[in-house]
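> example.struct
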């Protein structure tokens, strides 16, 4: 009988709820419980799914995860990467969580957060370039950033010096390292790192190449679906 009583919901009129009662905070629900764990159980069973299936971009409630996924793709132009297994969404990447793919992915649905696939290559490239020339602890963030930019420019210069004369894909006269698309710039950096011939730089180039490959395929999906 005790277990049965623990499931009883106290639907008390406004103003008559006991001072120590726990009230559900979900909009439109006035359920109250004598014990906090009973309220938690109620919220998990009754409202967690409702919250999870609310679009994180427009707050619209959807009936299923598949419906939510189609909604975000059609209404908010959120696209899935071509190879789900090789790229986590931005939320899972930041939280270091396993991403099963899909937009939104199940983990973002569970956490009720915005799900989007973004290019992580710029961050990864910066981290790998820094690792080739560790920043002294005495440098402040601005100096550290300057050191990275100088190193990046060094690899781009190497690209133009050695690779560009053979394959002049880029118009050097209008090239601006501060304005170029990240994928283009990081591709040039990877090539510049590789042709240095240095083992550490080539190892970093191969690692970044894998990330670029996935990101470029992702861009291809955008192009095809927008035709």
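> example.seq
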């Amino acid at each position: 009988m005790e277990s049965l009583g623990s499931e009883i919901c106290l639907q008390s009129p406004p103003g008559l709820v006991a001072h120590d009662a726990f009230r559900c905070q979900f909009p439109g629900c006035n359920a109250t419980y004598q014990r906090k764990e009973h309220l938690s159980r109620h919220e998990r069973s009754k409202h967690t799914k409702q919250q999870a299936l609310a679009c994180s971009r427009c707050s619209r409630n959807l009936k299923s995860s598949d419906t939510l996924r189609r909604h975000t793709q059609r209404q908010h132009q959120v696209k899935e990467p071509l190879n789900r297994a090789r790229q986590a969404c931005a939320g899972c990447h930041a939280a270091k969580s396993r991403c099963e793919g899909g937009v939104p992915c199940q983990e973002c649905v569970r956490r009720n957060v915005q799900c989007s696939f973004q290019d992580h290559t710029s961050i990864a490239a910066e981290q790998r370039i820094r690792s080739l020339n560790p920043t002294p602890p005495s440098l402040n963030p601005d100096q550290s950033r300057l050191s990275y930019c100088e190193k990046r420019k060094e690899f781009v210069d190497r690209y133009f010096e050695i690779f560009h004369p053979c394959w002049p894909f880029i118009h050097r006269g209008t090239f601006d390292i501060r304005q170029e698309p990240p994928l283009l710039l990081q591709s040039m950096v990877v090539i510049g790192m590789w042709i240095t011939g240095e083992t550490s730089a080539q190892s970093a180039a191969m690692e970044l190449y894998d990330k670029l490959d996935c990101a470029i395929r992702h861009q291809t999906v955008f192009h095809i679906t927008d035709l």
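> remarks
Residues 199-225 form the longest helix (27 residues).
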